[in-house]
Amino acid sequence: MASTSKNNTNSNFQIDPKILFFYILRYWYLIVIGLTCGVIYAYYQVRYTPATYTVNSRMLVKDEHSSWGQEYFLPGMELVSGRNRLINEIGVIRSYPLMEKVAKELDRKVHYFKIGNIKTTEMYSYSDFEVVALEGVGKGGYFIDFPEPGFYRIAKTQENLSEASPRSLKEHYQTQSATLKISVRNNEIFGGSDFRFKFMAVDALARSLQSSIQIDVENQESSILILSHKGQTPQKSIDYLNTLMKTYIQWGREQNNEIANNTIEFVDGQLKKIADSLVRTEYYLENFQKSNFQQRIYPNEEGSNNNVEIVLKLEDELSQRLIQKEYYLALLKALEKEDFNSFPSSAVFGFSDPNLDLLILAFQEGIAELRDMEFRLKENSSLVEQLESKNESNRYRLKSFAESSAASLNELVKQLKGKIEREEGRVMKIPHEQRKYLTLRRENKLLSDLYTYLLNKRSEAGIAEASNVAKAQILDFANAYRVVYVGPDSSSIYTLGIFAGLAVPIGLILFFYLVNTKIVDPSDLERLTAIPILGSIMYKKGLENNILVSDSLKSVTAEAFRNLRTKLNFMVVNKQCTKVLVT
Q1: pLDDT tens-digit readout, 119-169
Q2: Which residues pair with 226 in a beta bridge?
Q3: How far apart, in whole angstroms, are the C-alpha atoms of residue 185 and residue 127?
């Protein structure tokens, strides 16, 4: 019994295609209405949807190994031989700081639109009129038209535009935040269409660029990036992409030149200090030689010569220690700056301090990692805060190391000066003029050697800066040949409209079929019961006589009654008592 009930229940949800087809014929007007609505909707979409285009460009980004080795060909190239990873560079390109630079470079504070009968189109890169904020900062958007030559009307909404009073073009328009000057570039706009203009701040344009520019890798094994932008104005997309690539390349050069610039700044400071002392010693030495020209001043005792050589060697060492001391002092001064992010290696200045170089490298890597993380994460992110704390710890360790090294060098300088004084005491037997000449010459040589050394280092840093290769190369600029039409796709829209126009009414008809509880076909009874069906009589409305057979002996209804009678007679054959219940 349970099995039979289950089978009967399942059979209730069966769909008879023949009956469903008759339902569709019965409600044919629903399908016609659905198709008509679908086609009208598709026509509206194709007619009134603005055309959209996509533009792309290609850029080659140096990977983390492409710059290795260039520092061995030119002196000082180790200052700018940066290492970068492709995924980090994609993060940099998507970053708000770079997009802000792009927005400033584009310098588009006002956007202009022409309102047509069907579509609103942006006027780029030339507009028929110009709006300039003379005072203050323009905000929001306005509707404007030019009813007659020399006059304009302006309003916040298009509905209020026709009610606005005409203003002379010589009259400035005052808003809550700015004074606007409106000028006409094309006299054909008088008495024509309505227009709209809106102000867009740099930060808003930067955010818009962040969300609209797409970056893809050409393939997994290359470092070629494909930058694309989708919009209704192809020229705007072209300008966006080209400006973004140029700004990114320029930004990369500036980042790579940070250490070289710091080196040049440090060396220039030292040269300025030494130049005055060098000029002064040369002046004294020249005057001394002029006053003692007739009598040549040279040491003539062997012992004195040896002492003088020792003094010269000590002073050479003293000059090197002074350079190191100034290096550490310059590092300490740079660490005091909040924007400190790079400093040249000690090897650039002729001495090696591996521990210091490791601390500088760790600090610079932390700064670079923080910069990259800030591009991708929010400012108050826990990861950003952890990295900032780590960088502050590295800064403190680097500062402590530089302070202790500078103090040690200061003591060493004092010791060297003491040795020099002792050796000079042993040269006291040299005549006064000779001893004075040696002192002047020694001081001049010390400053001259130091000045020459620093000039060489500045030259190397300058070569490194001038030879700095950009971290990216533009392969294909965005141009009119790289514009692709995206939509609207009329064939797809019409196909979708027709499909929806058929699917909705057919689904509605199917719903009517499923919720119907009437017996409309003998098959309905066959699904619900096992009792055999003897026949069926068609129901007719508006009958004048209840006796159908007598009025029309050859009608379909009369034939149905005869068929039913024949089957009943066949079923009651050889039965003495027969009862038939009709309900």
Answers
A1: 788 888 888 899 998 888 888 899 999 988 889 999 998 888 888 889 998
A2: 58, 216
A3: 8
